């Protein structure tokens, strides 16, 4: 199987989600790094660039919408490449997709997570932001 080379930041306070994406990373040779809140994401983004960010909306310390707004502001100030940010959430807020787009996110994936759906969203974004043109096989069971 061909692999897609990407550094993906997973921002979620749920360690089960971390394990899920770490398994996905191992299976597809993706570099997955996990942090537990938006503030930790902001801190790590000072040091490292990522191909894609998967961001929960509701977390302690700093939620995903606030963190996304700050990330977009930093990108604008530094005039650097826009990193795709995908919301991953089981939120009960009304119209979360609209709120995510208004904050600067690129897409929304509802929990519970179906890995084939996640791959359908992240693969085009990672490919768009890289020069890799490899095929990516969906061989992950639904979870």
Please outline what is shown here.
The protein is an alpha/beta fold and 143 residues long. Helices cover 43% and strands 16% of the residues. It has helices at residues 15-28, 38-47, 64-78, 96-103, 115-128; strands at 7-11, 31-35, 52-55, 85-89, 107-110.
Relevant CATH superfamily: Response regulator
What is the share of helical residues?
40-55%
CATH topology: Rossmann fold
Give average pLDDT, whole number.
84
Secondary-structure arrangement, i.e. CATH architecture: 3-Layer(aba) Sandwich
Number of helices: 5
Strand order of the largest sheet: 2-1-3-4-5
Q: What order do the helices and strands follow? A: EHEHEHEHEH
Span between N and C termini? 22 Å
Compute the CA-based radius of gyration: 14 Å
**Main pleated-sheet profile:** 5 strands, parallel
**DSSP strand tally:** 5
Could you outline the blueprint of secondary structure elements for this entry?
Elements: E1 7-11, H1 15-28, E2 31-35, H2 38-47, E3 52-55, H3 64-78, E4 85-89, H4 96-103, E5 107-110, H5 115-128
Parallel strand pairs: 1-2, 1-3, 3-4, 4-5
Helix pairs in contact: 2-3
């Amino acid at each position: 199987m061909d692999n897609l080379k990407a550094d993906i930041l997973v921002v979620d306070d749920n360690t089960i989600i971390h394990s899920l994406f770490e398994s996905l990373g191992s299976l597809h040779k993706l570099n997955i790094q996990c942090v537990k809140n938006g503030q930790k994401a902001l801190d790590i983004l000072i040091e490292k660039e990522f191909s894609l960010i998967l961001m929960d909306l509701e977390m302690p310390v700093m939620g995903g919408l606030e963190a996304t707004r700050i990330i977009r502001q930093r990108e604008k100030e530094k005039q650097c490449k826009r990193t795709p940010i995908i919301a991953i959430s089981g939120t009960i807020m009304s119209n979360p997709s609209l709120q995510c787009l208004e904050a600067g996110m690129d897409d929304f994936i509802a929990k519970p997570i179906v890995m084939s759906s996640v791959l359908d969203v992240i693969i085009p974004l990672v490919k768009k932001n890289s020069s890799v043109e490899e095929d990516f096989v969906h061989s992950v069971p639904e979870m």
